[in-house]
Design brief:
The complex is a heterodimer of chains A (391) and B (150). Chain A is an alpha/beta fold. Chain A has helices spanning 5-11, 17-32, 51-67, 95-110, 138-146, 157-166, 195-209, 224-237, 263-272, 292-302, 319-324, 326-334, 363-372, 382-389, and strands at 38-40, 43-46, 75-78, 134-135, 168-170, 184-188, 214-217, 257-261, 282-290, 312-317, 338-341, 357-360, 376-379. In chain A, helix 10 (292-302) packs parallel to helix 12 (326-334). Chain B is globular and about 40 Å long. Chain B is an alpha/beta fold. Chain B has one domain: Glucose Oxidase, domain 1 (3-Layer(bba) Sandwich). Helices cover 16% and strands 28% of the residues of chain B. Chain B is built from 3 helices and 10 strands, in the order E-E-E-E-E-H-E-H-E-H-E-E-E. Chain B has an 8-stranded mixed β-sheet with strand order 3-10-9-5-6-7-8-4. In chain B, strands 1-2 form a two-stranded antiparallel sheet. The chains are: A alpha/beta (391), B alpha/beta (150). The A-B interface holds A 21, 24-25, 28-29, 32, 47-48, 53-58, 60-62, 136, 155-159 and B 22-23, 41, 46, 76-78, 80-82, 84-86, 88, 101, 103-104, 106-107, 110-111.
Amino acid sequence: MYLSREEERVLNGEEGWAYQVAMRILVKLGDLFEADKLIPIESAHISGVSYKTIGDASIEFLEALGESGAKVKVRSTMNPAGIDYNHPEEMIRVPEIMEKQDRIINIYKSMGIETVLTCTPYYINKPKENTHLAWAESSTVVYANSILHSWTNREGGPSALAAALIGKTPNYGVHKPENRLAKVLVKVKPRLKSEAEHGALGAHVGKLLKDEIPCFSGLTHTRETELKHLGSAMASTGMTSIFYPDTSCPRISGELEVVSVDVNDLKNTFDSLSTTNESPDMVYIGCPHCSAEEVKRVALKIEGRRVRRDVKLWICTSRYVRKKAERYVGIIEAAGGKVLSDMCAVVTWLKEIGIDVLMTNSAKTAYYAPTMNRVETIFSSLDKCIEEACE
Amino acid sequence: MNILFFDSGGKALPIVLKGRPIMGGRTRGRALVSKDPLSFLGGVDPETGRIIEKNHDLNGEKVGGAILCFPHGHGSTVGSYVLYSLVRRGIGPKAIVNEKADPVVVVGAVIADVPMVDGVDISKIRTGDLIEVNGDEGIVIILEERSSCT
């Protein structure tokens, strides 16, 4: 990979250890994937924030970077943490955990990363079309490439952080137009109704395709919310970082490989995302974090009703959306639900706060929670989730 | 290069396996070889360095001090930090040999400063073999086979 004289200087440690390590990460990844050069990025989104997922392992490394005075060069945001400090009554009450989570957030903050702890930073600041980003968090990546038409590889926590510190990323993968071409046509036979069915479709297709880029035919709802659920599920079961919701897209020359999805495929995947028939201790909406529109949908559905005493209803979103949808937050909380921000169910300590069965409209959560949180799952539409949560 | 020659089952030692340099540095140690991909997050206990990934062929083995040979990494990118932490605590691998390097392990090797080579046919290496990893040149040398050192 070509490096400018300035980049060489950083790699040689002339700007200090932290930038040297960051540059070394980018150069090694660039060499690995045969990038030709580093390209400037508009923004970075950093994963690896929840103490539950990153544990003590990363604190040492992040702290060393932070203490060296390293600062990000571009606007950078971070993923949800494990704690909403504004709702301590809902959280795990272990002082050591509260303290370590706070430490992690503060290290990132000291590097200049905005304390916007969400997996949907695009509701707050939309990146421009056709600009290069270095975003981590697979659902965020897929959304950026597929719905916002920005360009980002599927970064990990460390590589997104390195890119943020340097302000650049190696030019490979979907930063190159020839790697953004659809290779597979997914013909969807059933007419999908809910966001959950879009999630199930995503989970099914992700498993089939691995990292190949699909375009879809037969999707009738191509609204943002449905596509967000489709993409996040696809990125969970597979390695895809981009999809096209219809067939008017750049594609490889010649015939596309065709994959058909029929009613049974969808039903089987949908059913496989539930692991129990028991009744839930928690109903969870907010993976990926809710848009203002989704908060409103929950509010309209729950208005005038009461959340059952034996069930927690969690709606997770960013602080920004929570504020924007304040009126609807009021309605949900009056009914006994909780609208939480800065965190999400998957990256918090569910088992430790007494949750054994989690009901959700998120295929991504239903896919991860049995292993990451050791809980049973019930996967259903938003409407059915709210129905189950209420008296 | 100063290499001791051993005779093992008619095969001439040392055997030199050519690969690709990923992370520089040169070290010798006993190989710990797996046929299965490894996730450092959730697959290796950060307190002990023991492999805890379910159904993994090295389940129960400790990576500390070994030259860890496996096809490639998988799983969360937090795995890079786990590798860093293991090495910092002195319970990490001395070097890493992969068939195909993936970003999680590469970034882990970079921040932990562990020699790493990929593009090597690891089926030629057996657990217990004494091997040398040269991360600058991208080569792995089998110096002594397990059977000859018992």
